[in-house]
């Protein structure tokens, strides 16, 4: 299967939806933490703005609702929807007054005029600028909101979103030693499905990644008219973090690809941080590529190209023995 850049799909991928939801949630969570701190502290504006805490409270309401909307966005992804919806239900149970407060704040002009179309008829213009603060709880519209409870409730929802996101699948394109499944497992990564042979156009394979052991490790560089083969794995977000932590000296970057089934997805590609010419891989490292490519059914001519790579023997015989003991059989 061939990979190339494509125009954006009409609907973002599940991974993209969750990433956007987390980004929005992180922004909202930062604001919630900020407004909670400001409500509990004295600020320079207090000398000239009597309603400063009331204003900060309004921002807190907006941030809490924005966090909830971000969670709703994440719940559109079937894989994590049940867990996120449970967390949303708990959020609503702990903060039942939030929806009313947000509605009044959003349509304050209607309430200021006692407009017949306002949703909560019992709330009138007389309630809008009346509130109290006891150091923890802000009472507004006849309803109390404990800001400590709000903060902890928000943190639990954020934590549930992050935990759910870790179960999301991420595509990773392996072109070097990680084509060997045994090598991948050393990082604690265990793909649910077999890797898929995949061709990456516009890149060339190099062994110019500087390694602490003195050898060259695999890297890819953009090169027009060239192509490399590798293995496409689907792993969880948590496993991706394990892989990134283990791949020292590499930076994961994203490329757009069309995965099996025809959907456009973001795929992770690891590129070397530092490169140096004249390096060779050790023979055990070359074996990972050759046997990994063979195990995943990469084209015979590409496997022959890998077999022709010049390699050096590792002077550390114990390390050489340990690496050769790792199997690449699926």
Taking pLDDT < 50 over at least 5 consecutive residues as the criterion, the unreliable ranges are 1-9
Helix % is 40-55%
Main sheet characteristics: 6 strands, mixed
- The ordered H/E elements are EHHHHHEEEHEHEEHEEHHH
What's the helix count?
11
What attributes does this structure have?
330 residues; alpha+beta; Hypothetical upf0131 protein ytfp; 2 domains; six-stranded mixed beta sheet; 9 strands; 22% strand; elongated; disordered N terminus
What would your notes on this structure say?
The structure is a single chain. The protein contains eleven helices and nine strands. Mean pLDDT is 92; it is low at 1-9. With 330 residues, the protein is an alpha+beta fold. The two termini are 20 Å apart. The chain folds into two domains: 9-165; 171-324, Gamma-glutamyl cyclotransferase-like (Hypothetical upf0131 protein ytfp), CATH 3.10.490.10.
